[in-house]
Amino acid sequence: MTDYFDSLDATIHKEGRRWEVSIPKDANTELSLDETVVQLVTHPEEADNDAVALTPGSDLFEQIVDDAVTHAPIGSLALTGDDVNFDDPDYVVGESTEVTNQQLTPYYDRHALCVLFDVGIETVSEYQCEMLKIGAVDLADYEPRPQLAQTCLKYLEQTSPPPSEGNHRLSDGELTEAIAACREMVRVEIDSNIEDIREKATRAASVEIEEYRQYLQQRRDELRAEKQQLSEQIDELSTAIDAASERTDRLKRLRERKQLRDELADLRDELDGVRDSLNQGMPQKRAEIRDRHALTVRIRPVTATIVTHERGELDVSVRTDDCSATLTCDYAVGIGTLSRPTCDQCGTELDAQNPVEISPVKTTGRQCCGQ
Ligand SMILES: [Zn+2]
Q1: Looking at 71, 92, 122, which one is the last position of a domain?
Q2: How many domains does the chain have?
Q3: What's the rounded Cα separation, in Å, for the pair 90 and 352?
């Protein structure tokens, strides 16, 4: 954290866990701290009234992490046709038909932003999971590009440097919007994980509430029994007091009765409290348990990479024993084919169910227009 403040030329006066931080107005950051007291704490609520809490999960912490990624040097990756091994298309089927060549003719470059996120889903009590997720959006329309994200992840996981670097630049505004779109893509992706964990947490909370209810019912029964016992003891004492002939004996028993009556009053108060809590559905305890099981989801960007990738036409050369043909489809490096070649005769798309059949004059689908 200090390193990050230093990188912004901030001045920091440290007094134990209280830091007074000022960031120069012209620093390259969205953070605005001016003689602000930042306090390092374990829980946000522990911070003094005049201080801003700094702890994982606090607003300031999240702002700093987002800010660090937004202003960190952004990686870049350029994917060209030279970097890919084209998979054999699924519409080439059978022993007598084979792919002899695949050639990409690039027409233009598209740019996308890939962002790696550290995702944490946790409750104060028991459940938590931590994972890395990647999101990618096209920088022209901010639409999700899941396949490109996976391609990018493959390169990020490799220790070797990427095949080549791109030189596309982004404004801060574009970057912020693209990171937000990537975050949204990842959020949608983890939605079912969140739901699962939320359900588990809700079940755990219900079990805890039920256990507490049973504890209260047991306590209520105990208190009732104790109250009964005390009342009987008091009655016995009263009888003894009436019958007592000696003054000292009588005074001693009166004191005893007074003490038991005080105990009985305390017991009644506790019993009333337990009864009220049970009758009202234990609102305080319920809220406390729910809070403890409430989910916190944080999606924190770790790295951002601009991916420049070529788009164009892929020519697929196919040959049988006696003739050959070339089929064409739209292709994006890092994403794959964007369209399928079609049957010359009827226009149906070729795929695994409708594989290509070539003759000296035309290329058709075996299922739609086969011999
Ligand atoms: Zn056809």
Answers
A1: 71
A2: 2
A3: 5
User: Stretch 303-327: mean pLDDT, rounded?
Assistant: 91
Predicted confidence band of residue 84 (pLDDT cuts 50, 70, 90): confident
Flag whether 331 is in a domain. no
What is the distance in A from the centroid of ligand 1 to the CA of 277?
A: 75
Placement of tokens 């996308």 in the chain: 112
Ligand 1 centroid distance, CA of 347 (Å): 6
> Is the CB of residue 98 less than 8 Å from the CB of residue 123?
no
User: Tell me, what's the pLDDT at 211?
Assistant: 95
Dist. CA 342 → ligand 1 center (Å): 8
Half-sphere exposure of 348 (CA within 13 A, CB side): 18
Domain boundary among 71, 93, 122: 71
Contact between 38 and 18 (Cβ < 8 Å): yes
Burial 1-31 (b: 16+ CB within 10 A, else e): beebbeebebeeeeeeebbbbebeeebebeb
Question: For position 111, what pLDDT does the model report?
Answer: 94
CA of 357 to the centre of ligand 1 (A): 10
Q: Decide if pLDDT at 102 tops 90.
A: yes
Please, what is the average pLDDT of the chain?
87
Max CA separation in the chain (angstroms) = 132
- Taking 60 as the threshold, does the pLDDT of residue 160 lie above it? no
Determine the structural domain holding residue 214 and report its residue range. Answer: 208-293
Cα of 314 vs centre of ligand 1, distance in Å, is 21
Q: What is the CA radius of gyration of the chain?
A: 36
342 within domain boundaries: no
